[in-house]
Every structure is written in C-alpha cells, then in structure tokens.
Amino acid sequence: MGEEAQHHQQPNSDIEPGEITEDPPTEQQQQQPPYSWPAIRFDFPPYRAYHFAHQFRTSSSNPNNFLKGLKWSPDGSCFLTAADDNTLRVFALPDDESGSDVNACSVAANADSYNANLVLSEGESVYDYCWYPYMSAADPVTSVFATTTRDHPIHLWDSTSGQLRCTYRAYDAMDEITAAFSIGFNPTGTKIFAGYNKSVRIFDIHRPGRDFEHHSTLHGNKEGQSGIISAIAFSPSHNGMLATGSYSQSTAIYREDKMELLYVLHGQEGGVTHVQFSKDGNYLYTGGRKDPYILCWDIRKTVDIVYKLYRSSETTNQRIQFDIEPFGRHLGTGGQDGLVHIYDLQTGQWVSSFQAALDTVSGFSFHPYLPTAASSSGHRRFGVVDESHDNLSLTGDENCVCVWNFSCYSVEEIGDSTNNGGELDGQSDHENNCQGQEP
Asked: How far apart are CA 55 and CA 74, in angstroms?
C-alpha cells in the first residue's frame, strides 16, 4: 500500500522523550463505560453563559481577527481556540459551569466574561490543532495539545504553562521542513497521524525529531486518494479505523495498524474540510468547503449516501466545523448565516436552530460531559476597512466565542419515555435546567 518507513535521527534535540507524556492507559482503563448523563433538550434554545470578543481585537495590524474554530479538551476542563492572528488561546471553564448570570452577557455585551488562561503565538497560519486524547487537568503530564502551522513542524505544547514540549519534523525530497495540513492523535495516544500532499506521516510521540513512517495515499496505478490530506478522524469505538478527507473532494477509510485502504468515498461538492465518526463507529460524517451539505455514510455499506444535512456555506471559504453530542443522537453545525442547526442523526431530520452570532459560525463543539457547547465565529472581510473606526466597527456578536448552556431531560422524563416505548420529543411540561457533574 505504498508504505515506506523512514527513520532519521535529530542530532540537536534537547527535549527528553520522557517529558512528552505518560504511558498510554491500560486496556481495562480504555474499556471503562462512558459517563452517562441526561439527554439535551433541543426544543428549548440554550442561553449564553459566557462571551468572549474583545481580547481577539487587540492587534492593530489585524483588526479583523476572526476565529477559525475551537475544540473542548477531553476532560472538559477547558477549550482551545485558533484565530487568524496565528494565536491559540486556552479558556478554562469556571468551577461554576452554569455561568455567573443568565443576563450578564446582555448587560455588558462588549465585555468579555473573563480572560484566556493561556495565549500562545505561532509563527505562521495555524492549519490544525488537537488535544492529547487522555488529557486531564489534574495530571500536568497529560495536559498537552498539538498544532501544525505553515512552514513549521508539528509542535506539542503544554496547555498550562505554554512551554513547547517537543517538535515532530517531516522533510521533503529537498530535505526541507514540510508542514502538515492536518493532525490527529490515535485513540491510544501513542502516535500522531499527520496529513500531507498525497501522503500521511506517522510520528511516535515518545520520539520527537525527524523519526516517522511515511504512507502514500496515491499509488502508481493512480488508485487511492489524491490531493492534500486536509482532515483526519479516528473511530471512537476502537475498531481500528481512521478516515482522511482530501481537498480532492474525496474521503478515504483506512485500517490504522497497517494503513490499509478500505474505501474511497466520493460525493462532496467541495474539498473535504471535516470528517467525524458516529459514537458507535458505524457512520461517518463529512463536510466540505463551499458545500452546503454534510454527508452521512454507512461504512458497512458505502455504495450510497445515507442522507444529507444542510448548512449555509455556499459562498464562504471558511472551514466550518460540526460536532456530535456525547449522547450520540444529535449533530450541531454552524454556517455563514450565524445559525447553529441541530439534526437528529437517527432520522437525518432538522430538529432546531438558534442564533449563535451575526457572522459565520466557524466552530461548534459539544462539551464531553455537560449539557454545554461552545461556538466560534468570524470570516475574512475584504474592502471594509475604515480607518476612522477601530475593529471595523464590529459588534460583540461578530468574531466572538460563546459558551452555551442547554436544558436537559430529567431522569423521570427519560424513565417515563422508556417505559412507554416512546421517544423524547421535547413536549413534556417538566423542564429541568440541568447542570451535569463531571465524572
């Protein structure tokens, strides 16, 4: 399958491999049952608990510093944002997850709820970023995330101190550093998979430097996946599968252990920018640039598309993220209309929507344990610079990050629905504005 292992030694590495992370969790730890919490009520709009906008507008050289996206940490203690000014910020969730006051943001719309706990500047444009899958704020050794930027190697950062833990370098045929366009940790947290042009390189996190395995995605007979590998996702069900999206409008599914190509999926109207497996690992969701539909694929029968989920993205080049809530039943996605749409994944039907911003919602991510989500917004603006007005006269609901709290069903409502053999249709009179507890 075009597999070629390359082993290069980095002579001047001053970082000890033991500082990278701890040993991966045991098989027993990996098989622990997931945290169970009441299902979110999407028939009631969420309320905004926290709001951040001002701290993204501090640079006069880049007044339109829009957000590229965000991701919650695996333990839910914080979330990571990436912006156009090449800066990543970590916001820790306060101990009072419910927010200080429901109306606090409306009273002071232009004031941020609180400042970022960590502000980290990269040298060039940020292509991709991801958390270590077993990150825990209680264990500083695991509190790391990886980033890849233009013309730079992959960096592993300490999410608490901002210290650079180590780097992973890939070189081209001219022995020059080449940047990854997408990155992702494998489920065991022992390797970083990185997407390049027509290839995937695999780094062992315990061996920083220029040691890597090289796998071509396109072979001599032109079979496989061409183009830049722009997105990587692993199946959460530990079935050994991973998916890669390409700007060639294709998605490929591989076996992780040998990078054996299983399927190549075609159907996206634009270059694939986001791929994500369902919680059971049986379905794959893909989204593309300037493509108004998220496609659902059954990886057990990849002949046809199962259904399409609409989002407004026809005229924006912005990468738009979507996410599946921990219950596994619903998907949320942003769009250029400022709305977040919620879809039922069992039926593919639209459930509800709410206004998250006044510009493109580029990122939307559900909290891994709480009935909470975060959204980021903004897009590149051309020809609107007015020197007499700072920040392009942007409002507090543009180029911003928001944290949303949802209502959820009570235990009694779930029990009644189960006993009656019905579905949670959101029509019960009993609303519980639930705030779950972290395990």
From this structure: 25
